Amino acid sequence: MKLGKRLFGTAIVAAMLGLGSGAPAVAESTIRMALNADIRGTNPGVTRDGNTDVIHGHIVEGLVTYADNFDIIPMLADSFELSDDGLTYTFHLRKGVLFHNGEEMTSEDVLWSWNRLAGEESESHCKNYFNGKNGLKVVSAEAVDPYTFKLTLDKPFAVFLATMARFDCGSMGVLHPDSVNADGSWNTPIGTGPYMLGDHEPGRYVELKRFADYASRDEPANGYGGGKHASVDTLRFTIVGEGAVAKTALQAGDLDLVQIDATAAAELKDEPGFKIDATQSAVWDTYLLSPASPLLKDVRIRKAMAHAIDPEQIMAAITEGFGKASPSPVPPMSKNFTEVQAQYNEYDVARAKELMAEAGYGGEEITILATRRSGAYYERALMAQAMLMDAGFNAKLEVVEWGTQLEAYRSGDGYTMQSFSFSPRLHAGLSFEMFTGEAVRKAWQDPEAVALVYEALQTNDKDRLQEIIDDLQRRFNEEVPAIGLGHRMLFTGMSDKVDGFKGWGAGLLRGWMLKLDS
Fold it and tell me: Hey, is 4 helix, strand or coil?
């Protein structure tokens, strides 16, 4: 009976995942995983979202990266040094690092890659982090000799290296120039990482192949750096939009490792043959408010919405009690998280109704965008809708594809509120910068807040930085450019044959650490 049930489940899952006799043969050393949506492209630092960053992070590496404790450490650089005036960063490159095409990396490749992402013609949003538009300006980039690369700033900038290491910028990854065609158009990523891009069937799966000639660092694995001694030949990511389908596929043996929700984690934790990992991350789950909405121009409406939503209740529900509310954009594991960051506009329906009356709210529709991809985007949107309606708001939930929601975010229009998430920003200043600025996608465009964020990214004075972060938090609570919910609990379910998995607050899978028991 048990065997028959398993075979039946396997057949159903195979049909849902598009598996069958025509599927590619699975290599002996393969770990099969799930992505809740397809990658947005293969151009690191240009076409991206959270899923895409995970794939690119196995293919491409930067000069520096984040350690387990979020410190900045060398990666492709053997070492780096800062001039006494705080303007010039000199990177001494590791020798013998090979690209996936067998060519050795030199400073000319680093220079080409820097210009690709930070140059005037770059298609990357990250170029604005280095051209002065967001306060930081690199005035020169120079290949000094084959193994020395130098960058010079117009003024000291305390989080320059942290900005270089940003995951949403592809860690300013170094690629071989043959990654583009002769006419300059994009071709394929030829990086230095432990894995190379394999087959990609859009909407079905992405494969990464182990790079046999990878030049690993000698030290132990550390965050996104250190030694990367990959042992699994193929990492295969199947696109599975529904979390329930991914969980069923894991139980049926069609997948080996999947991101799951709290309910599935509670169900699987005692089930034989499986292991569960639960890790709090720096991923910030929030309700993003549109800067273009006429209704939300009145701060009383924004504050009323914040008072109408109960983060504690929502977090308890979507994490099965594992998580708790942390509405500040600064993650609780940050050294800059203090009692100030613990304060927020508490759940108070009576106060929400008072503010709505003061603002003359007349039943205008509040459109909440959400997607059904894993991460409880839909569930938390549904709960927020019910709470807003209970307070008297005319809230409408609109479920869209993730790509559609992302485009609305980028335009800053087409919605009133989004059930949204921001990938980790591992410096407190960057935690506010991710939604603060003059760009249309930025929810908080207040000039004083923008100036404070700019100062937070410049100062090397730790006490002054804390003062700024506390000031930003108080302003955030007063102006309500977004309604914070919590820092996501990440749940991973895996076969007990998978070893080496370690959860990380940065929220990124590190496939080079995985191993398979025979």
Answer: helix
- Two tokens at 264? 């599935």
- Who contacts 117 (Cβ-Cβ below 8 Å, separation ≥6)? 45, 46, 124, 126, 127, 169, 170, 172, 173
Q: Letter for the amino acid at 390?
A: D
Q: How far apart are CA 309 and CA 483, in angstroms?
A: 9
The percentage of residues in the chain with a pLDDT greater than 90, rounded to a whole number, is 79
Coil, helix or strand for 197? strand
Q: Is pLDDT of 185 > 80?
A: yes
> Kind and range of the H or E element at 141?
strand 138-145
Phi, psi dihedrals of residue 289, rounded to the nearest 5° = -105, 140
Q: Name the nearest CA neighbour of 493 among 276, 247, 239.
A: 276
Q: What are phi and psi of 461, to 5 degrees?
A: -85, 110
Could you read off the pLDDT of 80-111 as tens digits, one per residue?
999 999 999 999 999 999 999 999 999 999 99
**3-state SS string for 336-386:** CCCCCCCCCCCCCHHHHHHHHHHHCCCCCEEEEEECCCCCCHHHHHHHHHH
Q: What DSSP letter does each residue of 428-497 carry, written as one string?
A: HHHHHHTTBSSSTT-SB--HHHHHHHHHHTT---HHHHHHHHHHHHHHHHHH-SEEEEEEEEEEEEEETT
Cα separations in angstroms, 346 against 325, 352, 418: 11, 10, 20
- Based on its alpha-carbon atoms, the radius of gyration of the chain, rounded to whole angstroms, reads 23
CA distances from 338 to 245, 335, 453, 463 (A): 40, 8, 18, 13
Per-residue pLDDT for 21 more than 60? no
- Tell me whether residue 102 is exposed, middle or buried, using C-beta atoms within 10 angstroms of its C-beta: 0 to 12, 13 to 18, 19 or more: exposed
Average pLDDT of span 133-137: 85
The encoded tokens of residue 420 equal 């949204």
Pair 390, 351: CB distance under 8 Å:
no
Q: pLDDT digit string (tens) for 276-298?
A: 998 989 999 999 999 999 999 99
What are the beta bridge partners of residue 31? 235
459, amino acid identity = T
Residue with tokens 């590190």: 510
Q: Could you please report the per-residue DSSP string of 74-137? A: ESSEEEEEE-TTS-EEEEEEPTT-B-TTSPBP-HHHHHHHHHHHHSTT---GGGGGTBSTTS-B
Q: Mind listing the pLDDT tens digit for each residue in 305-329?
A: 999 999 999 999 998 888 899 999 9
User: Phi and psi (nearest 5°) for 431?
Assistant: -60, -35
Comparing 158 with 4, the larger pLDDT belongs to 158
For 341, phi then psi, to 5°, come to: -70, -20
User: How much is the pLDDT for 12?
Assistant: 41
Contact 255, 261 (CB under 8 A): no
Q: Stretch 337-341: mean pLDDT, rounded?
A: 95
d(CA 224, CA 176): 20
pLDDT tens, position by position, 440-487: 999 999 999 999 998 998 887 889 999 999 999 999 999 999 999 999
